[in-house]
Design goal:
This protein is 56% helix and 0% strand. The chain is elongated and about 55 Å long. It contains 16 helices and no strands. Bound molecules: iron/sulfur cluster. Iron/sulfur cluster (SF4) binds next to loops.
């Protein structure tokens, strides 16, 4: 009879036809995707029983968990607890601008500035932008270099200056100078993605929308409420399962919560008001 395995001792048996090198490359790719969003996606079996799942919970906080995951029986309670705590946290800057300005054009343009930019920088840059280009007519006429200097140092300020002028020209030419209140129409504007479109529709027009940024994506995955790889997938999952009464509030709450306690790396779980509901999926290190 032929030997069952003629490979030298210590050789790894390929799984599903993959070589060990290909499997390692695949694992590294998945790990890089998870790290980008602060999320380690695991299967339900891993979360509940495997040693890998258990290792993801910090020893200091594991014993405090009393619920398996956040679901539609508990999501209202969890968001209610965060809502009660939120007044002591800083609100997201675009929310503050929307509340103060009550102008969809300013909500849209400040949201563009906020992408990949800290809130403190966005707040100051938005004020300078509104001073020289606070209406569609003034934005369409402003010099691109002057606008870029006004919004510096927001991320990609030169690209954003060009983009803001292009968006405004389209709003004037196609929408009569009014920011559209419809997600699909907003998505036709150059450089406007789902996050911005949902934020504008939800905040400026108070119409049903779920704005999913990196905080909403990361935290709802840590809770086990969704199991997704990208913010776009999270938006679709939330649209399918999150009760409509929570759609508009979830972004504000989780952005402030993510900036204050549930940080991408080393969240402050020991201070977290919803710790008893959270299985901390993907959390490797916490405080
Ligand atoms: S801070 Fe910790 S316990 Fe609280 S939601 Fe985030 S990961 Fe869960």
């Amino acid at each position: 009879m032929a030997p069952r395995d003629e490979r030298p001792r210590g050789t790894v048996r390929p799984v599903s036809g993959r070589t060990p090198a290909a499997a390692a490359r695949a694992r590294a790719k998945v790990a890089a995707e998870r790290a980008e969003h602060g999320v380690a996606e695991v299967s339900p079996a891993e979360r509940t029983s495997s040693s890998a799942g258990r290792a993801r919970r910090s020893a200091a906080t594991r014993d405090a968990i009393t619920e398996p995951a956040v679901d539609n029986r508990s999501i209202g309670r969890v968001l209610g607890i965060l809502k009660a705590a939120a007044p002591s946290w800083n609100a997201p800057v675009v929310t503050l601008i929307n509340t103060h300005e009550r102008d969809p054009f300013r909500t849209l343009t400040s949201c563009i500035l906020s992408l990949r930019t800290k809130d403190e920088v966005t707040a100051v840059a938005s004020r300078r932008m509104f001073a020289i280009a606070g209406t569609p007519e003034r934005m369409a006429a402003v010099d691109e270099g002057e606008l870029a200097r006004a919004i510096y140092p927001v991320g990609f300020y030169r690209t954003k200056a060009k983009q803001l002028i292009g968006i405004t020209q389209q709003i004037l030419a196609r929408f009569g100078g009014k920011v559209p209140d419809d997600i699909d129409a907003l998505l036709t504007l150059p450089g406007v993605g789902r996050k911005t479109a949902n934020l504008v529709v939800g905040q400026a027009f108070a119409k049903p929308a779920i704005c999913v940024d990196t905080h909403v994506h990361r935290i709802t995955n840590r809770w086990g409420y969704v199991h997704t790889r990208t913010p776009e997938q999270t938006e679709l999952a939330l649209r399918a399962q999150l009760p409509a009464k929570h759609w508009l509030e979830i972004n504000d709450l989780l952005v402030a919560f993510g900036q204050t306690l549930c940080h991408p790396t080393s969240p402050k779980c020991s201070l977290c008001p919803v710790a008893r509901y959270c299985p901390r999926i993907g959390v490797v290190r916490s405080r």
